[in-house]
Amino acid sequence: MKAVCVRDVSFGYSEGLVLDNINFTIEEGDYIGIVGPNGSGKSTLLKLMLGIMKPQKGTIEIFGQNISSYKGWGKIGYVPQKAASFNTSFPATVEEVVGANLFSKIGLFKPIKKSDLDLVYKYLDIVGMREYSKRLIGNLSGGQQQKVFIARALVSSPEMIFLDEPTVGIDVKSQQEFFELLDRLNKELKITIAIVSHDIGVITQKVGTVACLGNKKIAIHENTADEHALKDMLRDLYGDNMRILLHEH
């Protein structure tokens, strides 16, 4: 089944179109990077796929249903940009941050049951943050915080996770650990992952499929191991003057 199907979608602001009649799909089980320079429409496309904004033209389907009538948002996890994801000065512990994503299930003012807490610990184990469960979120490094936000998304048992520039402001070692975690979630838990990033060189080395946005269009490359074909596609989209740096694994 297609996790996401974007058909003939256009969207613009007062200064003009950002996306012009784009088409692409995300299959269940995909690990896809949505990349492009600043201003290429990445954030706009993400908001459209999350139902935050509506296409001005065209349709979007989530798991086979039109997004306008889709009710299964519990299947969708979302990890926003680090800077926007949480007020890290708020005096909440790691387990409280993760458990907060269960409030829609258990009720806002109801105590968390042991079974729910076990679920929190299960996903903290998966992301390697169980030992930090009693720590304040603000006392963790940027990379550790992002792992906590991944656990927060996982605790609702999603089938797909969207991530928006999740490695901005995180050191190289933490980035590597973060991508290894995403790879495990995709391969072992069979979670469909879509990661939005401006860092084309890094993302193309990590994901299985690349969707490149530019000039109001989208181009899909399904074999990221073929660097020559990938570079050709990027130059076709962004022009010959763009310097493309593909990082080593």
Automatic annotation (TrEMBL):
<dbReference type="GO" id="GO:0005524">
    <property type="term" value="F:ATP binding"/>
</dbReference>
<keyword id="KW-0813">Transport</keyword>
<comment type="similarity">
    <text>Belongs to the ABC transporter superfamily.</text>
</comment>
<keyword id="KW-0067">ATP-binding</keyword>
<dbReference type="Pfam" id="PF00005">
    <property type="entry name" value="ABC_tran"/>
</dbReference>
<protein>
    <submittedName>
        <fullName>High-affinity zinc uptake system ATP-binding protein ZnuC</fullName>
        <ecNumber>3.6.3.-</ecNumber>
    </submittedName>
</protein>
<dbReference type="InterPro" id="IPR003593">
    <property type="entry name" value="AAA+_ATPase"/>
</dbReference>
<dbReference type="InterPro" id="IPR017871">
    <property type="entry name" value="ABC_transporter-like_CS"/>
</dbReference>
<keyword id="KW-0378">Hydrolase</keyword>
<dbReference type="InterPro" id="IPR027417">
    <property type="entry name" value="P-loop_NTPase"/>
</dbReference>
<dbReference type="InterPro" id="IPR050153">
    <property type="entry name" value="Metal_Ion_Import_ABC"/>
</dbReference>
<dbReference type="InterPro" id="IPR003439">
    <property type="entry name" value="ABC_transporter-like_ATP-bd"/>
</dbReference>
<keyword id="KW-0547">Nucleotide-binding</keyword>
<dbReference type="GO" id="GO:0016887">
    <property type="term" value="F:ATP hydrolysis activity"/>
</dbReference>
<feature type="domain" description="ABC transporter">
    <location>
        <begin position="4"/>
        <end position="247"/>
    </location>
</feature>
